[in-house]
Amino acid sequence: RADLRPGIPNTEALTGTAWRAAWRAAAARPSLGYPAQGAYRLRELVAEHLRVTRSAPATAEDVLITSGARDGLRTLLGAVGPDSVVAVEDPGYPSLRAVLRDHGHRVVPVPVDAEGMEIAALEEVNPQVVLVTPSHQYPLGATMSAPRRHQLLDYAARRGAIVVEDDYDSELRYVGQPHPALAGVDSGGRVATLGSFSKTVAPGLGLGFVLMPEGLREEMRARATPASGMVQDAMIHFMEADGFRHHLARMRREYRRRREVFVEVFGRRRAVPMDGGLHAVVYLEEAGQERAVVERCARRGLVVQALSEYWSSPQRSGIVLGIGAYSLDRTRELLGEVRAVIRAVESVDPRAKVEGR
């Protein structure tokens, strides 16, 4: 009946005039396609977006248009070289670890604490690539501290590693101001920033970008595969008409309301409001409770995700709930059902929280 897995945005707001006009304009003059690096105008607009929103000094030549974040990561790792050792956050994306392994790379989980990836543990691994989510650690939501960012960049400069910043939802922050992108404070050309329109616009768009590190640009361009020309044209029109900026502002307001609904349903004693993003984390006492909640939700037709799946070896129990996909009223109703399931299994741990704290 409902998919409450994390990362699914609400696409109902895309039915506005600017979005429809962008696709009409793209269809009126069907694209003949673009070079593998992407349409120059779209790269200009993405670079401007990164300068304004992420304080990253980007130009069109620095940007590679991709078919999404995973396509960008595949191209980047191909440029680094085969059989790379890739350090990833633990906990972190379970599906991403599988993708990396499927492409022949050695994946090494590195613990994170309240400030981000632990550099001492990273030193022991000595990877060629470090994949991090510094703006909003996934799934627990912490923001990498300024000292830890500088330690990470110092490490990359000393060891010659590439830091890949997965900027998966920084535009959807609605409490406080985001930190600048790592690329904005990197003086050694060691950072690549992955971006995607899947959460800010729609997953089915199949469009993303990479802010490329200088030393890998030529190799990445050579390995890139072109994204859809029609989709690029539509996004160009959407961004030029200021539709993208207005859409982001609207969605930040909408997702802030989802946060308020989550607190309303679960209670402030058990939930701390998030700083941004599309999901919430609820901790449970033990693995048995986690399995019971996931299974009982499934019997009701509700798909939720187990928190333990995000670790290389299960360390914490809980559930990860997507709160972005449905209308406000529907979200309230669905979260109420999940809350009832949790109550039936056992009362929620007082440490329950929403990502971002």
UniProtKB/TrEMBL annotation:
Residues of the Aminotransferase class I/classII large domain: 18-307
Pfam families cross-referenced by the UniProt entry: Aminotran_1_2
Listed InterPro entries: Aminotransferase_I/II_large (IPR004839), HTH_trans_reg/aminotransferase (IPR051446), PyrdxlP-dep_Trfase (IPR015424), PyrdxlP-dep_Trfase_major (IPR015421)
Cross-referenced CDD domains: AAT_like (cd00609)
GO terms of molecular function: pyridoxal phosphate binding; transaminase activity
Keywords (A to Z) from UniProt: Aminotransferase, Transferase
Alphabetical list of Gene3D superfamilies matching this protein: Type I PLP-dependent aspartate aminotransferase-like (Major domain)
Domain of life: Bacteria
Name the record gives this protein: PLP-dependent aminotransferase family protein
